Amino acid sequence: MTSLAPPGQRVLACDDEPQILRALKVILRCAGYMVVPAADMTEALAVVRASPVDAAIVDLLLPDGDGLELCRRLRQWRDIPIIVLSAVGEEEQKVAALEAGADDYVTKPFGPRELLARLQAVLRRTSRSPEHGLIQTDDLKIDLAAHRVSRNSQEVHLTPTEFELLRVLVLNRGRLMTHRALLTEVWGEDHADDTSVLRTHIARLRRKLEPPDGATAHHVHTAPGIGFRFD
């Protein structure tokens, strides 16, 4: 596994299962990260208090608390990217973790490449462009200040709501946004549960942004039952 991390990036790895913690240390160190291990919430808070980290990977179930509380506590100190580890079937907990401040989740058992890709994505979010800037991908050009979008140099016509939805996704790119978070941000608190409205607008946005023959989403990705992420 080749080095992927900029020199000196420190990642908190918190899990009470020794084999998982060992695996996290090996995966992260092989990718070039400095690993700060912790087996419970108390230890995690102590080591982060002693020396700041650039990101955190946190298990949802800890012996002296839970990942939700740890996410909230970490968020009080610093706006670092947080990935939660969860077992299959914990959909409600995943949503709760994202709403508590986590940026993404990885389901156990996980593959090293998936974990590192998710970590790189959330770390990129911390260095995203300012709101009134220009964001460019391989095929998309998004001018937030001018409210203008083009794909392969062809202008894409978006409704004001579609553009606002895209703006929120782009400003949080690499971060998994829950349905409720997107609905509240774009439509307001009164529409926090209107998931059908959100899905309709996401479908329209994809039709305008993605290649017409694309078999899978290229930019706007779906986490079934949870939310969406712009990559």
Secondary-structure map with pairings?
Layout: E1 10-14, H1 18-30, E2 34-38, H2 41-50, E3 55-59, E4 61-62, E5 65-66, H3 67-77, E6 82-87, H4 91-99, E7 104-108, H5 112-125, E8 134-136, E9 140-143, E10 148-151, E11 154-156, H6 160-171, E12 177-178, H7 179-186, H8 195-209, E13 220-223, E14 227-230
Parallel strand pairs: 1-2, 1-3, 3-6, 6-7
Antiparallel strand pairs: 4-5, 8-9, 9-10, 10-11, 12-14, 13-14
Question: What is this entry, summarized?
Answer:
By secondary structure, the chain is of the alpha/beta class.
Distance between the termini: 23 Å
The string of secondary-structure elements, in order, is EHEHEEEHEHEHEEEEHEHHEE
C-alpha-based Rg, rounded: 18 Å
Tell me the number of helical segments per DSSP (H or I, 4 or more residues long): 8
Specify the structural class: alpha/beta
CATH hierarchy: architecture of the largest domain: 3-Layer(aba) Sandwich
Which residues sit in consecutive blocks of at least 5 with pLDDT less than 50?
none
Proportion of residues in extended strands: 15-25%
General description of the model:
The structure is a single chain. With 231 residues, this protein is α/β, with parallel strands linked by helices. It folds into two domains: 10-125, 3-Layer(aba) Sandwich (Rossmann fold), CATH 3.40.50; 134-230, Arc Repressor Mutant, subunit A. It is 40% helix and 23% strand. The protein has eight helices and 14 strands. It has helices at 18-30, 41-50, 67-77, 91-99, 112-125, 160-171, 179-186, 195-209, and strands at residues 10-14, 34-38, 55-59, 61-62, 65-66, 82-87, 104-108, 134-136, 140-143, 148-151, 154-156, 177-178, 220-223, 227-230. It has a five-stranded parallel beta sheet with strand order 2-1-3-6-7, with helices on both faces. Strand 4 (61-62) and strand 5 form a beta hairpin. It is globular. The mean pLDDT is 84.
